[in-house]
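Journal club side-thread
Mid-discussion, someone asked how the predicted structure for our own chain would compare to the paper's figures. Pasting it here so we can look after the session.
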Amino acid sequence: MTNPPSTPQPPRDVDHAGDGEPRALQVPDSLAGRRFDVAVAELFPEYSRSRLSAWIRSGDLLLDGRTARPRDLLAGGETVTLDAVPEEQTSDAPEDIPLSVLHEDADVLVIDKPAGMVVHPGAGNRTGTLVNGLLYRDPGLAALPRAGIVHRLDKDTSGVMVVARNLQAHAALVEQLSSRSVHRQYLAIVVGALVSGGTADAPIDRHPRDRLRMAVREDGREAVTHFRLRERFRAHTALECRLETGRTHQIRVHMQHLRHPIVGDPLYGGPLKLPRGASEDLVAALRGLRRQALHAETLEFLHPRTGEPLRASAPLPADLRELMRLLREDAAAQADGRR
């Protein structure tokens, strides 16, 4: 286990409240040399790029108090001011979808997302999503960017997610994610019997030919995943993975890059690998797993109002719990010389 996250520096904002009040952020040195439109997407990740571009054109996004062109390059240290009143951010329909709530208060909602649930409505998934369920539980989330969701899990990844319930909490959580002070821990069952943990430090971006996939690319965005052994089996390993960055499909791509893809991964998993002489039950479990064996088990952050650490963990779902049991049984049988 890693140490609890350290207290992040207070956001350099004029105001988090919204409702017409300006919000100002100082451009960090890490964004020096970046275009204005690219930098504001990093500074205000709660808003879409198209919305930010419109605010640049309308003069609602200012650079050191003046209008700027999207292509203007930044030196670092400038002040970016957002002075706009976002209209209602979410127009999706509320649905009475049961949600597994791990923690709830006036500022945040922490849920255990099941595998198979899409987070945001989109083409082919207008209903049955986490957003639809959240809007039913708390209609006020319709006024927040992305219904208060500040990070996401893939459809077939289960586990802990935090949702902001007001603009102040939203801004504070986004700041913590940007400063990498949120502890995000996953359990991944991968192909191959690893002998040690390590760190995958390899940039990620869209696959050059398949737009549904991500890939390790030299010109990609920084991506860092730390992993260590949780349990070692005959031909598989349970890893504890900790995200330092949060790129799309990050753990899945990094494990494939290390040639230890996640079991059951439909995009990055490759051919099915079965231990020699495996039991019928284990073979059936491995063949029958219809999603990547990846679970967001622990999330720890500073509460946006109190500043106190808040830690939430989601139990391993039944399909992965059964797979782990069978892998242990297989390893024990090998050790006993029964196979």
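Post-session note: The radius of gyration is 22 Å.
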